[in-house]
Amino acid sequence: MPRLLLLSLGLFLVAPLQAQDAAAGRLAQLFSAWDAYQDEQSGLGSPDDGAASRIPVLPPATEAAFAEEAMAWQGFLDRLRAIPADELTGEDAISAVLFERLLEDRLTGYHFRAYRIPITSEGGFHTSFAWTPGRISITTVEQAEQYIALLRSWPGHVAEQIALMREGLRTGWTQPAGAIAGFDRSAAAYVTDAPEASVFWTPLAELPATIPAAEQARLQAEGRAAIAEAVVPGYETLATFFRDEYLPGARITFGASAMPDGRAYYEHLVRHFTTLDVTPEAVHELGMQEVARIRAEMDAVISAVGFDGSFADFLDLLRSDPQFYAETPEELLSYASWIAKRMDGQMPLLFGKLPRRPYGVAPVPDEIAPNYTGGRYIPGPAEGDGAGTYWVNTYALESRPLYVMEALSFHEAVPGHHLQIALAQELDHLPRFRRNIGLTAYEEGWALYAERLGGEVGFYADPYSRFGQLTYEMWRACRLVVDTGLHAFGWTRQEAIDYLASNTALSLHEVTTEIDRYITWPGQALGYKMGELTIRRLRAEAEDALGDRFDLRAFHDEVLAHGEVPMAVLETIIRDWIVAHREG
User: Fold this and answer.
1) Beta bridge partners of 337
2) What's the start-to-end Cα distance of the chain, in Å?
3) What is the sign of the dihedral through the CA atoms of 112, 115, 117 and 123?
């Protein structure tokens, strides 16, 4: 019997206790082996090995390496399936479902050779590498030497990734040229003649006094040399490849379905990102229904403010009137921080459990800001209590309207991503892989649901801010239409731009960068609305079933108590919670 079906029968099929204990023990051993394998692959070592073992290494990026990984994934999957599903209960049953899904998804991705497209319009392996210096701290000579070795390994990794992308060019598996124009700049941004001006210098700039001065001088000299001789040339090589080879050779079509076996690949991505067994056609139709519903609410706001003009005229006003835009980056950051702090004070009204980790507000780094979305949450490190960061894009202020800042802040900070991810990082009783599994429908569905919560605690009082919240919801509804339109129905890039621009108050700059994101990251944008609709439906079920017994804080705590789970698993969890509270 499939694991998910057993789970849907209730997490509580009762096998003999001895069998349950044996199955739980085998599962724990399997997860320990998985953790060790992941640590070996990422070069992180055991969390108990000390900080020096946690300087990362760049994994091999070759056809042979990915084939070897796929064999390892299949081995773990075989071991999991040898454990009787009906002998697992509670969180163990959930963990088994999630682990099976994780491995099956990875194996399917390998089948399509998706690793031959290691970039999106927002960045890729090269921008992720540039984030590494900001996420590590050097306290020993050994760490410094490992970090310098990491820098020295960069040209080899670039060569391997270029070889994979060349194979993608040969087989028709590339990003569309029309969605990544100027992408070479994302690599050229890290080229500098001054090593100490590089982001990669940061961990070496101020070494601790526990390292002798002579050693500090040696390590810093070696670090400068590694940046000048390895990091910068690696990025130069990559920028040249993007400009002279990848862009001229990339496909001219936009939809994933246009690639070899692309339709099957997109159908897989729809299931992967929504965590639901749905078709692109069903998602497209649901999106059209949501667009119509939200449009009616937007029209009501326009009428309430007394605007005498068409919907398009109102959007033009929002995009062009200076009163809706900050004059300086500092003003935008200050406004976002003020909103976030006000919401902090309302959190006890919505939740019984809050995370220990704090979060900060910071601008999107300059080198990626031009093609980056309006905001994003960057989690703190998995180990320790490091703060998360709410990034606000201060590039092109004329495209960053103030009327969406409440919705954006609630999505990225609290009660959205920071709350959910920081709480998940505290779930020490769960297997490590479950604390940051990256299920878009859950993560982004929760964050979109969190935007609506602002209205329940006094935000969106200004009608333009309310319209901003609706335009953000409309934006996510449009994604259901646009993403499937592009990748299943053959829409052009311009058709997608026109649809999003005509239905939302997003700036034209943001509309364009968003469409390029959907083109180069097929299916990902579907998880937001599909997940949010599931959470809203489950809340309505709980409210109807429990009546006066319904406790909103307890409901939210239960949704967040198990970490990220697929929507079908969340349905089982909440329906069991409803039964327990109705009978309690």
Assistant:
1) none
2) 31
3) positive
Task: Tell me how many degrees the CA angle 472-473-475 measures, rounded to the nearest 5.
Answer: 60
Mode of pairing for the β-strands spanning 359-363 and 388-392:
parallel
Q: 557 to each of 349, 354, 418, 430, 574, how far by Cα in Å?
A: 12, 9, 15, 16, 11
- Are 363 and 342 a contacting pair, CB within 8 Å? no
pLDDT tens digit sequence for 443-500: 999 999 999 999 999 999 999 999 999 999 999 999 999 999 999 999 999 999 999 9
pLDDT at 263 over 70: yes
Q: Give me the sign of the Cα torsion angle 360, 363, 364, 366.
A: negative
Of the pLDDT bands very low, low, confident and very high (cuts 50, 70, 90), residue 4 is: low
For 333, the token pair is 């950051």
Global pTM reads 0.90
What is the average pLDDT score of the chain? 94
Confidence band of 551 (pLDDT split at 50, 70, 90): very high
DSSP state of 325: B
Contact 52/150 with Cβ under 8 angstroms?
no
DSSP 8-state assignment for residue 212: -
Closest CA to 49 of 125, 142, 132, 126: 142
- Supply angle C-alpha 452, 557, 449, rounded to 5: 20
Say how far apart CA 473 and CA 504 lie, in whole Å. Answer: 9
Place of tokens 């920028």: 239
Candidates 392, 377, 398; CA nearest to 338 is: 392
Three-state SS for 295?
A: helix
Domain boundaries, the chain: 1-112, 266-532, 541-583
Per-residue pLDDT, 584: 65
Q: How confident is the model at residue 46 (pLDDT cuts 50, 70, 90)?
A: very low
How far, in Å, CA of 262 to CA of 264, rounded?
5
pLDDT of residue 9: 43
Helix (H, G, I), strand (E, B) or coil at 389: strand
